[in-house]
Amino acid sequence: MGPKAAFIATTLALATPAGADFDAEAFPPYERCALCHGLFGVSANARFPNLAGQEPVYIENQIRAFLSGDRHNDGGQMTSIVTELKPEDIPVVVEWFSTQDPPAPAPEGNAAGRALYDAQNCGDCHDAGSSYLGVPHLMAQHADYLAKQMREFRDGVRGTHLGCLPHGPMMPADDSDITAIAAYLASVPRP
């Protein structure tokens, strides 16, 4: 059991009435993910993406990318937590988060961001009408999270995998353009 799972188990054990049996394995596997992503897939912290209503194939692909070492994140917490999932847990986690109600969009959009998003042709793959399987919904995502991911693609910190177009060259060079696109996407309702 990893450190986060141990924390959950300890917290739940303390909340269990005296004399009652406690079994950490009895809790659904998505509760491990909820520590950062929120129980219903809406995270309170922009460091962690909203998973509610996300494309299921994308969620599964990202879990597998963290498991294989093809993807990393700051501090390595994702690699640590996904290793606590059994293979049969992955579909349960994917179904849970992908079927939750999408998060609410941010209250204000960014017209310049929309124009940049359109000019970069991002919607060809990421808009709701796209037929590409496993492409993530970017709408109603934390703007700060999106901006960080876009900068990491641009700077070569985050690679593109699973047959997608290389994202690095597609990202704007100017951080203010990235911030504008992220603000626009955060304000659009997720399908």
Helix proportion range: 40-55%
Number of strands: 0
CATH superfamily of the largest domain: Cytochrome c-like domain
Return Rg in Å.
Answer: 18 Å
In DSSP terms (H or I, runs of 4 or more residues), the helix count works out at 9
How many domains comprise the coordinates?
2
- The chain-level mean pLDDT equals 87
Describe the protein.
This protein is an all-alpha fold and 191 residues long. The protein has two domains: 96 residues, Cytochrome c-like domain (Cytochrome Bc1 Complex, Chain D, domain 2), CATH 1.10.760.10; 76 residues, Cytochrome c-like domain (Cytochrome Bc1 Complex, Chain D, domain 2, Orthogonal Bundle), CATH 1.10.760. Helix content is 46%, strand content 0%. The protein is globular. The termini are far apart.
Short description:
The protein is built from nine helices and no strands. It has 191 residues and is an all-alpha fold.
How are the SSEs ordered, and which strands pair?
Blueprint: H1 3-15, H2 30-37, H3 56-68, H4 77-82, H5 89-98, H6 111-119, H7 123-126, H8 143-154, H9 175-186
What features would you highlight for this structure?
191 residues; mainly alpha; Cytochrome Bc1 Complex, Chain D, domain 2
